[in-house]
Amino acid sequence: MKITRDMFISGPYRDCPKCKSENTFGVFIPISGSSTYQRECTECSHEETFPFPSIKKKVVYLDQFILSNLTILLDSSHPKHKKIKGDQFWTKLFEKLEYVSKSQAVIFPDSFFHKNESAVGKINFQYIRRLYEHLSSGKTFFPDYLIEREQISKHFENWLQDKKTDFTFSPENISFEGDKIHEWTMGIGISVSQTPKEDEINDLVERNKQSQKRLSEIWSEWKQVKEFDFIKNVRNEALSLRFHITNVVKFYDKQKELMLKVAKGEKVDWTPENIFPPTSKDLLDDLMRKCRLNNVPEPEIVQRISDYFSDYKSLLQIPKIKISSVMYANLSRDAHLGKTQPPKSFVDFEFISSFLPYCDAMFIDIESKRLLTELPKDTPSELRLDEFTQNIFTLRNKDDFLTFLDSIIDSIPKEQIKILKDVSGENYYEPYWGLIENEKNK
């Protein structure tokens, strides 16, 4: 096969401004993330370069069940395809997601929650991954523990100095791509991601079982509480951060125990839990470093950190801690009021409390929104989450989400639309209906 430069030139074609040939001045395939694009004549090789203007995309996070249903919509062989396709909402949703995404107006970041849930879900992992990477253009949010660590570390340093912390919620700060989350994603893009191996999937399944077991135990404890106090429960959830210290101490105690066994020649079970320290070790190391930078005497460091994790009023100023504490306290209220079954996992609590402040909108499940917004009437204003819950959508107000996307479409600058049409044609926003079928053919 002979590869020529012309193969990388495609429509929409224009008349060449130099040799005047008709419909020969095509688009040289751009690389995703470029700041410019190029046109080239297939006759005289005349080239011209045009700039992509700076843009700032809206950031919208989609819950896993949205991705699952959209994958089924696009997979004609799935047993539930006809049912999902029969609900016009999902077709309209995909059309509008494609429109705002291809218009470079919105980014739908993926996350490790998406990856893990897809790995153990009932839908083919490669298909659903193809969809979420398509919508995210490969832009991925940090793991939740890194976001928590960053917020606590920043807040702790100000706490040491008796200063108030002003948090800035820029999505660039929690994305592996940083400012590139707002780049133009047209043309060729490279995606490098591995399919989870069998032992990784088994580990996820086991962790989910342990999580469900722990949640059931906690649920039983909540149901047995005779006098329920929502505010007290919020405080207790915030104070549970003390387990950060406890977990690290337990890890080192376990390490000492294992080393003694090794010294005695005894058999040691080197499980991942025994080898790798908990993620909270990095947090604790970070807080100790902050203490030293702020001239806290070495003998006092552990006590200062302990005091910090005992100050619930300060801890509830941290966005991730505040959101998760309110949600868990509201969940315990459900148990107290007689709800029979707990949720299946902690996943929704973790991604919502981590990502919500950084997103322009979220589409989540109905129960999660209720736990965020339907609080006891006497809940004080400082514990309410009104500043974070303006654009939360569920299946209960799904038409409002379509309207929200329409409002974004209406606000796209004319100059941006002109460039989109020049690079990709008049129907640049046409949905990629063959996304999953093409993935199958691969």
The percent range for strand residues is: 5-15%
Uncertain segments: none
The level of helicity is 40-55%
Largest sheet: 4 strands, antiparallel
What is the CA-CA span between the terminal residues?
A: 20 Å
Morphology: globular
Number of strands: 8
| Succession of helices and strands | EEEEEHHHEHHHHHHHHHHHHEHEHHH
Which class of secondary structure composition applies to the elements? alpha/beta
Count helical runs.
19
Characterise this structure.
By secondary structure, this protein is an alpha/beta fold. Among the domains are: 47 residues; 131 residues, no CATH class. Helix content is 50%, strand content 7%. The chain contains 19 helices and 8 strands. The strands form 2 sheets. Strands 1-2-3-4 form a 4-stranded antiparallel β-sheet, covered by helices on one side. Strands 6-5-7-8 form a 4-stranded parallel β-sheet. Helix 1 crosses helix 5. The radius of gyration is 26 Å and the shape is globular. The relative contact order is 0.14.
What keywords describe this structure?
single chain, 442 residues, alpha/beta, four-stranded antiparallel sheet, four-stranded parallel sheet, 50% helix
Summed up, what is this model?
Strands 1-2-3-4 form a four-stranded antiparallel sheet, with helices on one face. Strands 6-5-7-8 form a four-stranded parallel sheet. With 442 residues, the chain is of the alpha/beta class. The chain has helices at 64-74, 81-86, 88-102, 112-120, 125-136, 144-160, 198-223, 230-239, 243-263, 272-275, 280-293, 301-308, 312-315, 319-336, 347-355, 366-373, 398-410, 414-424, 435-441; strands at 9-14, 25-28, 36-41, 47-51, 58-62, 106-107, 361-363, 392-393.
